[in-house]
Specification:
The chain is of the alpha+beta class and 504 residues long. It has a domain of 124 residues. It is built from 16 helices and 10 strands. It has a 4-stranded mixed β-sheet. Strands 1-4 form a two-stranded antiparallel sheet. A two-stranded antiparallel ribbon has the order 3-10. β5 and β6 form a beta hairpin. α4 packs antiparallel against α7, α4 runs parallel beside α8 and α8 runs antiparallel to α10. The radius of gyration is 28 Å and the shape is flat. About 18% of the residues have low confidence.
Length: 504
Amino acid sequence: MAGRENSRDHSIFQLEKDVLNLQLLLQEEIKLHDVLEKAVEDAAFELSDLSCLPNDAQELLCNITTLKNTVGKLEEEMIYLNFQLIQERNERRLVEYQLKQLPGSLQIMYPIAQATLDDLALEEEEGPTELIQQFAAIERVPLKGVLNHLHPNKLSEEIVRCMKDIFISLANCHSFPSTFSSPESFCSSSSPQGHIPTFWPLSELTSISSWRHSSQVDIQYNNDVLTTGGVFDPYKVREKLSWIDIGNYSLVKEVSWMSVEKKQLEAASDLLKVFRSLVEQLTEVNPIHLSYPEKLAFWVNLYNALIMHAYLAYGVPKSDMKLFALMQKAAYIVGGHSYSAACIEYVVLKMKPPIHRPQTALLLALQKLKLSEEQKRCSIDTYEPLVTFALSCGTFSSPAVKVYSAGNVKEELQQAQRDFIRASVGMSNKRKLLIPKMLHAFTRGFVDESNLPIWISGFLTQQQAGFVEQCISQRKYSLLGSRSCGVIPYDSRFRYLFLPEILR
């Protein structure tokens, strides 16, 4: 009996030993798998991690890493040289164009918002169209004492301002609402119409219901909250009833057309000279030493300017796929490194794939955007979701462009969120809250669908929030169904909104 027990104990001991050996072998395999996966994905890994590999495999991976670094540098040089080639070609064509005499009455108008001008979108092998190249080109004219040696943040601010002025100078004034056709109405430092919305804590929303005047909401004749027409609505869509007070967006300058005549061409040419001087200074900027707020404001400003510059240089893309291709092609040289618009948005600013734009999200999943280790050090450390309301890719559904400062970037991003929500949401004639798809996608994960109207009401005025609460409450007890929100589809048509800088 004792012999059997000893034999069983020996068998158990041997099994435990075999299990331990298998576990050690599994750990080695897992470590080997991790090293190989990092190498394949081009992720950062230490040379000490290679010790688990055979010598020939270690040598091979080291050679692959060296080759990848070399190829990456060559790709950056190629992008830079291609960018310079385009600029040189455009400058030559601009000089040729300026030698021709233009009739004083010449005026060519580009309704970019219309599909008929999708021909402005360019394929990779095509150069800028004959007219667009006039604005993409920037003369190499020395500008002594003009905004030289600025701090990186001040430089990015001036670049956005200059590009904004270029767009406005090329814009057809007839495309703006009549109340905003005067330049003074945009540049004035006076306080905006209405007031900046106050954030209402969820616990206080129950007190808002005291605003109600009757037991039944009169959608068509509620003139205190809703507009029946004549008020500028930057995100007007079918069946949407808009607020009579949309806050700071009532002061935006809208650019959805481009108009060219001799006077505007000359004005744009002067602005582009200044713009070239500013962009050239980016080569001397080193964002590594900037603080988190400074990096955040710097890259947001640079992204918005780069997208606008890309539209002037290459034309307006026909689709989201062409826009993403343009974002990969358009790049600035910052501190000796090339940063494309796509890399700035999704690597430097760490923005998440836009689920409200499925084509772009799919392209991001299929194509990995790469930056060097030094470039990654220039990126922000943590993802800031409010950047969603600061980046504009020039579509009808994009938020407005404004200049962001390093000293107040967090507060300015919070204000950008409030401004966008205030201007973009509205009610339908069936008492359903209408919200843009971008905002709906932004709230996924931290706001339940049933609580979305309450969350949005926190960014509206007290009257608007009370009106929303009353509409949603009545809808729940009607035959219209319990779903209280409708989503406004994303609109990719060309359009820019520019907010004035001085707001209270």
